[in-house]
């Protein structure tokens, strides 16, 4: 009988509303047909990982679970009938393992690391279609940032229908999704404005190609600045990650026929909206939930073509997941925070 693979896993246990992170041994069952075992090389953190632990997210499971959705690793073993992968291949996890193409469905709306175990372990098993080849020009650390933040930004920018040469895209904040959105909007030929709470971070965004910045702490009505920076025309696209307190500003800041990709709710999920701004502006509002495997493959082709590298801000050994979560919570690092599993 094939042996189980003995591994170590990061575990989150939520008790009485308090999340505790620990390490434990896990035994992966023998591979089933069309399954692949991946030796984890790197795992990237996202805001949702801390939101789930703090109970802010609706999909927090009421049990101990293995967190994280974003991994790059090396195929170690393949089950019967696997045709796409062989040992040694470098792969990334898929945030929604069942979302292959087309629209998200109730059946495919089952993300890793929420309600089902994630990739925060020394090896994980995945269905062969739930993996994507890592772009060869990226390190494992860099490729681990793609499954959630990268793909979300790709979907939000490239499928908006308005990011193109001559257009102006505004990205809110300098977090993981927003920096990817900045890079993709530049790739599409658009000019990019960035909002941030910090002038120093705006300066860093400039170095990554941003054409202008607005400090949203000093300018709570930043739509006025965005309108004046576009000579009164308005923005073609806003990558909306703030939610409450920013969505109304985004509506005011877009041009007639402009678009808003609704991604996040960093400052809350509920605020009153004057719907006249929606129809009066002919606004195109699109909700984003990461993306499909098909979108991931399209993104990877673009990354290779443009030799684009994700912005990585901090790398820690995977055993220091606690410290990585604290750094994520502090929010003072520009660029993705990644756990290194020490696999070459
Ligand atoms: N729908 C989806 O599929 C999807 C996928 C990924 C993420 N998300 C959501 O998108 C949001 C961002 O995620 P992330 O992983 O990129 O987070 P992150 O890396 O932790 O980014 C946080 C940054 O957002 C900025 N920010 C916070 N409040 C803001 C506000 N009111 N206005 C403008 N910027 C603000 C801050 O930038 P400064 O420090 O520069 O001020 C902060 O550093 C979260 O709500 C997350 O849950 C959704």
UniProtKB/TrEMBL annotation:
Xref: Pfam families: ADH_N, ADH_zinc_N
Sorted UniProt keywords: Oxidoreductase
Domain annotation Enoyl reductase (ER): ranges: 17-339
Keyword Oxidoreductase: yes
Superkingdom in the source lineage: Bacteria
Listed SUPFAM superfamilies: GroES-like, NAD(P)-binding Rossmann-fold domains
Enzyme class of the recorded protein, top EC level: oxidoreductase
Record CDD domains: MDR7
Molecular function terms, GO-annotated: alcohol dehydrogenase (NAD+) activity
Catalytic activity, EC: 1.1.1.1
Name the UniProt record assigns to this protein: Alcohol dehydrogenase
Source organism: Sphingobium indicum (strain DSM 16413 / CCM 7287 / MTCC 6362 / UT26 / NBRC 101211 / UT26S) (Sphingobium japonicum)
């Amino acid at each position: 009988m094939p042996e189980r693979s003995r591994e170590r896993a990061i575990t989150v246990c939520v008790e009485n509303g308090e999340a505790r992170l620990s390490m434990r041994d896990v035994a992966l069952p023998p591979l089933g047909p069309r399954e692949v075992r991946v030796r984890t090389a790197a795992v990237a953190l996202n805001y949702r990982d801390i939101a789930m632990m703090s109970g802010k997210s609706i999909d927090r499971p009421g049990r101990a679970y293995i967190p994280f959705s974003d991994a790059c690793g090396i195929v170690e073993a393949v089950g019967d009938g696997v045709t796409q992968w062989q040992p040694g291949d470098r792969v990334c996890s898929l945030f929604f393992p069942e979302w292959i193409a087309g629209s998200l469905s109730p059946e495919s709306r089952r993300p890793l690391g929420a309600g089902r175990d994630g990739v925060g372990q020394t090896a994980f098993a995945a269905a062969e279609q739930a993996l994507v080849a890592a772009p060869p020009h990226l390190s494992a650390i860099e490729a681990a940032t793609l499954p959630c933040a990268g793909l979300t930004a790709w979907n939000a920018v490239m499928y908006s229908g308005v990011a193109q040469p001559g257009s102006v895209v505004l990205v809110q904040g300098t977090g993981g999704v927003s920096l990817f959105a900045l890079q993709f909007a530049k790739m599409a030929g658009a000019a990019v404005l960035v909002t941030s709470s910090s002038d120093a971070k705006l300066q860093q965004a400039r170095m990554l190609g941003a054409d202008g910045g607005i400090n949203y702490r000093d300018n709570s009505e930043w739509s006025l600045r965005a309108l004046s920076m576009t000579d009164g025309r308005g923005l073609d696209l806003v990558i909306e990650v703030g939610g409450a307190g920013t969505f109304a500003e985004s509506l005011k800041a877009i041009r007639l026929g402009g678009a808003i990709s609704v991604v996040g709710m960093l400052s809350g999920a509920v605020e009153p909206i004057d719907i006249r701004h929606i129809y009066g502006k002919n606004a195109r509002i699109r909700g984003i939930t990461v993306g499909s495997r098909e979108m991931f493959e399209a993104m990877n082709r673009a990354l290779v073509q443009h030799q684009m590298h994700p912005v990585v801000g901090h790398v820690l050994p995977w055993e220091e997941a606690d410290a990585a979560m604290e750094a994520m919570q502090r929010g003072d690092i520009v660029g993705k925070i990644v756990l290194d599993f020490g696999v070459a």
